[in-house]
């Protein structure tokens, strides 16, 4: 099986759906020899910041000399990004080999796994093949019924920022969502949390107390922002001074505080991570698609944020990094997102809009989105393709303007390719 055949197989109709429960994943892994039991984990759940926080932790662990797996979703440019060892994504050849190994086990099950369950099982087999010392494991929607929760107690369970997303599965309030996310907690791990509010923290505190799990809270009041530019930012955190982070935005400083707190928890459990490892790992971390600079002339920035917290962070980044710039907004969105709120927040900073249709069955068409955006009284052009949208945005921005592409992660890869060819 080739890599492209493996991806086609994974995306095939057989595995479609999102069905709560862990029984299918447990059965599939048992048939495979339980590769997850050979691994240690940092398990990450949350609404926002999971990927960035996971990337920071994995980068530092690599600098410390550990063979480090990283499992994330969704992907930005290609499927293989979802599973990496030491910063290198799975090759097409190995993706084919591992999928070929998992395939008969999945097909022999009376109740087939879902696509996410199948991918998770493939990832565990891949990490076990590479004898990873530790795997930084990002959950899907997260919580007790997430297929990543088949692991034994992780070294550290990390809770990033939470918001009201996937409420039909997770709960209608932040407290209910926090309780669902806390389903990953197991006796024997440490826990780390992003500071949301007292009532959410009380949920984590109660569950950790019941399970006798140490809870470490990131100290956001100990963050001091020192400098920021489009190259990155420096900050102090507690007694650590002048840490450099290439990821942009105040929210990334909060994510970094969570990552540092998790790394300190790992050190407390005996993992050998020096201060220089920590600094080097944060300095070199890469996480594309989050206020990511693709080009300088004109400035072309892409951001995959789409929920209310991400959009608030995006607006702050516009104020911090693009003050006074005439902003051309290149955008596309999925029809099931709260896009009226998204654009109400960003529209005051836009000089004009160019709309595109994201490559996803749930998309809102460029023409429909254009009609919606005309209500803001700014010029709007609907493009026939993402590539044409990039060309129109570049032409309309001129050399002194700036382009911000945002709205859907699904179009970022196509945007990057079009910018590179322009």
Structural notes for this entry:
The chain has helices at residues 3-10, 23-32, 50-63, 92-107, 115-129, 167-170, 174-181, 198-211, 250-268, 275-284, 308-321, 339-346, 366-373, 386-397, 412-421; strands spanning 41-45, 68-71, 83-85, 88-89, 134-138, 156-159, 190-193, 215-217, 223-229, 232-237, 240-245, 292-296, 299-303, 327-331, 350-355, 380-382, 402-406. It has 2 domains: 3-284, UDP-N-acetylmuramoyl-L-alanine:D-glutamate ligase (3-Layer(aba) Sandwich), CATH 3.40.1190; 292-421, Protein-Tyrosine Phosphatase, Chain A. The chain has an 8-stranded mixed beta sheet, sandwiched between helices. Strands 12-13-17-14-15-16 form a 6-stranded mixed beta sheet. α1 runs parallel beside α4, α3 (50-63) packs across α9 (250-268) and α14 packs across α15. 40% of the residues lie in helices and 18% in strands. It starts with a helix and ends with a helix. The chain is built from 15 helices and 17 strands. It is of the alpha/beta class and 422 residues long.
List the topology elements:
Blueprint: H1 3-10, H2 23-32, E1 41-45, H3 50-63, E2 68-71, E3 83-85, E4 88-89, H4 92-107, H5 115-129, E5 134-138, E6 156-159, H6 167-170, H7 174-181, E7 190-193, H8 198-211, E8 215-217, E9 223-229, E10 232-237, E11 240-245, H9 250-268, H10 275-284, E12 292-296, E13 299-303, H11 308-321, E14 327-331, H12 339-346, E15 350-355, H13 366-373, E16 380-382, H14 386-397, E17 402-406, H15 412-421
Parallel strand pairs: 1-5, 1-6, 2-5, 6-7, 7-8, 13-17, 14-15, 14-17, 15-16
Antiparallel strand pairs: 2-3, 3-4, 9-10, 10-11, 12-13
